[in-house]
Design brief:
about 400 residues
């Protein structure tokens, strides 16, 4: 939340800001609207791409711009026109001022452009005014593969979410490749042929760069045996990852082969885990068990003024938050996810303010409501899918996450 409000302050200052530095704010706005209005991520990706295309087309000579708006932008816009109008009419200005303003601006730009072209008056298009309007957008400014946070694009895809989370311990390059591919899966249906070729080449180039990169051993006179063993382990792991990615690259580059983006995602995910034997809902129930237990214990320790127990529960929660933020939340229904995020934000607030005793009635009331909501969701998933509560698995997972957290701090 601190990043969210810090970035909101940057926007309000309206100084020359870098849009890529506002991703927390932008993603949160889109996620909240998506949850309230049941909007899927493809809507935001299509909007982003349409705005990007519009800006590029308006910079062309009038004749070319007229042709492209009629043949490229108009069909895409007509497909989403009603939804764009519905969304910006429904979202309250108080909470979503910049998003609402951007949607209205873009809707006006496209409607006005299409009307002028349909009437044969394309020479009256105020191209530079429209380009400037797009450049001044805040939430809908084209960010391409960062349009939405990557995990939002993979909602419900547990193997992708988990493998992406695991991959960060081995290679940020593979993580970036996964982020690009999942975004491409959403944008390709709308992309022009030229952009499809460009994006495929970009993906191939990223994979090639990764497999060709050589490891440089450390040169340190105080290099210990322990450090050597750790580095050798890293080299062996990286070699394995490169071998698997080379296999994917060979499949993609085979003449006549048609490897889908879904197959690329499956191939990369299978490097890190057994995707065929995963039981996603079982793990989601486990995470909800952990969360409801944590909330119950936190509320009890606050009520009993047991600071030692409170700190213990907050520490446990802190070790789990990275996983909850990147995996668990995206396995929940949108409205339940918002409740889950309330738990995360309260835990972060309590943990950061510890040992200060900031336990307002409002905090405990919100936690109580979140507990009821998550308990209901847990029971609903477990009963509808025949998932049993596995306390041993829950405790084992907590122990593993604590171990990982401690190692990350070494």
């Amino acid at each position: 939340m601190k990043n969210f409000y810090r970035q909101l302050k940057i926007i309000q200052d309206r100084n020359n800001f870098d849009h890529s530095s506002l991703t927390d704010y932008i993603h949160r706005q889109k996620n909240e609207v998506s949850a309230h209005l049941s909007i899927t991520p493809d809507f935001w990706v299509a909007m982003d791409y349409a705005i990007h295309l519009t800006s590029a087309i308006l910079k062309k000579p009038k004749a070319e711009a007229e042709k492209d708006i009629a043949e490229v932008i108009k069909p895409l816009f007509e497909h989403y026109n009603r939804k764009i109008e519905l969304v910006y009419r429904k979202i309250p200005e108080k909470e979503y001022f910049f998003l609402k303003k951007d949607m209205k601006s873009f809707h006006h730009i496209i409607c006005h452009s299409i009307n002028l072209i349909d009437k044969g008056l394309s020479h009256f298009l105020p191209s530079y005014l429209f380009i400037e309007s797009i450049q001044n957008m805040v939430v809908l400014f084209p960010l391409h593969e960062k349009t939405c946070d990557t995990c939002s694009l993979a909602i419900g895809n547990y193997s992708f979410l988990l493998s992406r989370y695991i991959s960060q311990a081995f290679s940020k390059d593979i993580r970036e490749i996964m982020d690009l591919i999942i975004w491409m899966k959403f944008v390709i249906p709308h992309a022009t042929q030229e952009d499809r070729t460009y994006l495929k080449n970009k993906m191939v180039s990223k994979i090639e760069t990764f497999v060709k990169e050589s490891h440089e051993f450390k040169e340190d006179p105080n290099y210990s045996t322990r450090e050597l063993i750790i580095e050798l382990r890293e080299v062996i792991t990286l070699s394995y990852l490169k071998e698997k990615m080379t296999n994917l690259l060979d499949r993609i580059k085979t003449p006549g082969a048609k490897v889908t983006l879904a197959e690329c995602i499956e191939h990369i995910s299978s490097i890190f885990l057994d995707t065929k034997n995963l039981v996603p809902l079982k793990h989601t129930v486990r995470d909800l068990m952990i969360t409801t237990n944590l909330i119950s214990n936190i509320l009890s320790s606050i009520k009993e003024k047991n600071e030692k127990e409170l700190y213990s529960q907050l520490y446990t929660a802190k070790t789990l938050l990275p996983f909850f933020k990147e995996v668990t939340r995206y396995m929940l229904e949108p409205k339940t996810e918002l409740e889950f995020l309330k738990f995360i934000e309260i835990v972060e607030f309590l943990e950061e303010s510890h040992p200060s005793k900031i336990f307002s009635n409002e905090i405990t009331a919100i936690l109580g409501d979140v507990l009821k909501s998550l308990e209901t969701e847990k029971e609903l998933i477990a009963s509808s899918d025949g998932v049993t509560y596995d306390v041993d698995a829950m405790n084992l997972f907590i122990a593993k996450m604590k171990q990982i957290y401690v190692r990350s701090k070494e």
